[in-house]
Write a structure and sequence with these properties.
Elements: H1 15-27, H2 32-36, E1 45-48, H3 56-60, E2 65-68, H4 70-85, H5 99-112
Helix pairs in contact: 4-5
Length: 121
C-alpha cells in the first residue's frame, strides 16, 4: 500500500454526501463529545463512528454517524482511532460520548486550556 488516501471526492465525499451530512447536522446540531462533558458547541463535522475505510455500507449507514465539532473530530476521535487500530479500545469507545472519549476530552482540554482560561500553545 502506498499510503495515499485519495482526495475527499475519491473517498466518497461527494455532493450526495454533502447533502446527507447537512441534513444530519440539521437534525443533530450539537457536538456529541461536547454535550457529554456539559459543553455546548455546534457540530461542524459528521463523523463516521467506525472508520469506513472505503466500505460503502459503513459509509452510508446512518447509525454509523455522530455529530462532532472540529476539535473533537481532529483531536479526540483521531486519538481513539489510533487506540482502536492498535487493539487498545473496543468499537464502543469510538463514540464521542463513551467513557473513554469523555476521559480523553477532559484530559486533552485541561492541557489545551490554561488556568487563565486561554488556550495554551
Amino acid at each position: 500500500m502506498d499510503g495515499h488516501r485519495g482526495s475527499a471526492r475519491e473517498r466518497g465525499y461527494t455532493v450526495q454526501w454533502e447533502k446527507a451530512a447537512a441534513a444530519f447536522k440539521r437534525a443533530h446540531p450539537l457536538c456529541l463529545g461536547c454535550e457529554a462533558v456539559g459543553l455546548v458547541e455546534p457540530a461542524t463535522v459528521v463523523d463516521h463512528i467506525v472508520p469506513h475505510r472505503g466500505d460503502q455500507a459503513l459509509f452510508w449507514d446512518p447509525a454509523n454517524r455522530q455529530p462532532a465539532c472540529g476539535w473533537h473530530h481532529s483531536a479526540v476521535k483521531q486519538t481513539l482511532e489510533v487506540q482502536f487500530d492498535a487493539g487498545r479500545v473496543g468499537v464502543d469507545a469510538l463514540r464521542l460520548d463513551s467513557a473513554e472519549a469523555i476521559r480523553l476530552t477532559k484530559t486533552m482540554r485541561q492541557r489545551s486550556i490554561g488556568v487563565d482560561g486561554w488556550p495554551v500553545g
